[in-house]
Write a structure and sequence with these properties.
The protein is of the alpha/beta class. Helix content is 43%, strand content 12%. It has a single domain, classed as TIM Barrel (Alpha-Beta Barrel). A six-stranded parallel sheet has the order 1-7-8-11-12-13, sandwiched between helices. Strands 3-4-5 form a three-stranded antiparallel sheet, with no helix packed on it.
């Protein structure tokens, strides 16, 4: 009998079946799992540039690119440092610190006063004619492809500034709705364009939690954000029914996990180990959604030993048992303080679990 490919194995998992083995990835959905300093460490250690190939992971990544849809993004802002850069929404970024650290961001809609001001902001332009040769090659080799497909809550506060957006939800709901509508429109267009290319898993990013609780009240999330997600996912389901949905949402998001399940996301990542109990949520929701079994990029990966890493991977695999309903992943981007040996141990243990599962189907 021909051996199951990683793409077929993942499809079995995401359509409710029992996969032959637990897939694993070193990426964060479609986003690189190595910070730029750690990517250099990888190159120094291996001479290569492709962690997924080197470590023989089960996932490959390909995303459409977008660019600013207006003329001069700097015109949206008060004076900025000369070396500021701009994203596809026109938000300004200025690092001013160590490589790999979080930059300072200045929101493109921070100075908007009215709904009309929000509506005048240009939406990003999607590159609809990308070179898809790598995507096709990965499919031919039997790999599933994950692709970046957007955000709603996170992009909304990026555009407006977090404090101002959260205040708008209460005091200026029409402005908040205008921002969400603009963001939802772009996310829908990006998700549909990605799905039409044949990207298997559309990866959405919408951090809604802190480690102590929600950033936004569950009630406001359900009133403003959940309906927007429903519109996006329903549109994709109608036009490209084979597409699958990955949601990355950090922090303690206990109150909205049932809502995420109800919306029909197929994968939820990371179930952040510092504040979410993977075993509890797998017991409650593991038959309805694939919950990523995440090794902490904040604690165990940087500060554990290789043996700690191996034990944790085996512990997580033991929780899901013979149904194998999970994906092994880091909880977030791997930073330069992480020992190289720990990443190797994670990949080796994930591959050992795969070999064991294939030998004992």
């Amino acid at each position: 009998m021909p051996r199951v490919t990683p793409r077929e194995n993942l499809n079995n998992l995401l359509t409710g079946g029992v996969p032959e083995w637990i897939p694993f990835s070193l990426d964060i959905g479609s986003q690189p799992g190595f910070s730029s300093p750690f990517a250099r460490i990888f190159h120094l250690q291996t001479g290569g540039y492709e962690p997924a190939e080197h470590f023989d992971t089960d996932v490959r990544c390909f995303s459409l690119t977008c660019e600013f849809g207006g003329d001069i993004p700097r015109a949206l802002h008060a004076p900025l440092p000369a070396d500021a850069t701009f994203d596809e929404w026109g938000n300004a970024h200025w690092a001013g610190g160590e490589e790999g650290t979080t930059d300072r961001m200045v929101p493109a809609a921070g100075r908007a006063k009215t709904v009309a001001d929000i509506e005048r902001l240009p939406s990003p332009l999607i590159n609809r004619r990308p070179d898809t040769s790598r995507l096709k090659a990965w499919h031919e080799a039997g790999y599933p492809v994950f692709g970046y497909a957007g955000s709603i809550y996170e992009w909304s506060w990026w555009l407006r500034g977090m404090e101002q957006f959260l205040m708008d939800l209460v005091s200026e709901p029409a402005v908040a709705e205008a921002i969400i509508t603009k963001v939802t429109g772009h996310t829908m267009r990006l998700a549909l364009a990605s799905a039409r290319l044949g990207i298997d898993v559309l990866c959405f990013y919408d951090d809604a939690g802190m480690q102590t609780g929600m950033q936004i009240s569950p009630e406001l999330w359900r009133r403003f954000i959940k309906p927007a997600w429903r519109r996006v996912l329903d549109a994709v389901r109608v036009q490209t029914p084979a597409a699958r949905f990955f949601l990355h949402s950090c922090g303690r998001i206990d109150p909205i996990v049932p809502d995420i399940v109800e919306l029909g996301f197929h994968i939820l990542h990371p179930l952040q180990p510092e504040c979410m109990d993977f075993e509890r949520f797998h017991r409650e929701f593991g038959d309805k959604i694939v919950l990523a079994a995440s090794l902490s990029s904040q604690k165990i990966l940087p500060f554990g030993t290789p043996d700690d890493i191996r034990r944790e991977a085996r512990r997580l695999a033991g929780i899901v048992g013979s149904k194998k309903r999970t994906i092994l992943m880091p909880s977030n981007v791997i930073q330069p303080e992480t020992p190289w040996e720990n990443v190797v141990a994670f990949a080796e243990e994930a591959r050992a679990l795969r070999t064991k599962d294939r030998s004992n189907p």
